[in-house]
Amino acid sequence: MNKYIGIAGTNYSKSLNAKMLNFIKKHFAAQADIELLDISQWPLFSKVDANLVPEAVLKASQKIKQADGVIFATPEYDHSVPAVLMNALAWLSYLDQPFNAKPVLITGVSYGALGTSRAQEHLRKILNAPELGAKLMESQEFLVGRGFQTVAENGQLEASLLKELDQQFSAFETFVAAVKKEGDQ
Questions:
Q1: Is residue 76 within 8 Å of 118, Cβ to Cβ?
Q2: Pairing with 185, which of 49, 61, 68, 110 sits 20 to 30 Å away (CA)?
Q3: Along the 185 residues of the chain, how does pLDDT read in single tens digits?
Q4: What's the CATH code of the domain at 86?
Q5: pTM for the predicted model, two decimal places
Q6: How distant, in Å, are the alpha carbons of 12, 160, 180 from that of 104?
């Protein structure tokens, strides 16, 4: 069973993205162990000595390194990722590179019709930076638009979206296996 880290790119306590990520954790519990990291209380990034990096950042970095992959659920704010997610990525790329060659699945819920398409594209570019170096599945997006209509209070998705999520997760598991095999060579 693969172990994944889930990161909701938000600090909003009623976030649909956090709810969806919790749902993903429960829905795929028989297939994968998904641990959710809370980045909402991390301090603002600033360059500090290595011994002054926040403990939460160091622990998160170790968990990401040990995981088989990472699942992001990001909202879209002004056609980009939220500041709290940018902050977390800045901390995680500062002294360490836990995302280096790490398979990543990007998801997201928004209130608009386009889902989080622009935020996901932006996140892809960020994760592709040399300081992060994540492994991204080509042409794989899980976009949920009109979140208030398509995501229930408990994070449950409507049937058509759930089918799409199942397909995306299956593709991600295949991708993770291929990355592992590539690393063994």
A1: yes
A2: 61
A3: 999 999 999 998 888 999 999 999 999 999 999 999 999 999 999 988 888 999 999 999 999 999 999 999 999 988 899 999 999 999 999 878 999 999 999 999 988 877 889 999 999 999 999 989 999 988 777 877 777 777 777 777 888 889 999 999 999 999 999 999 887 75
A4: 3.40.50.360
A5: 0.94
A6: 23, 23, 13
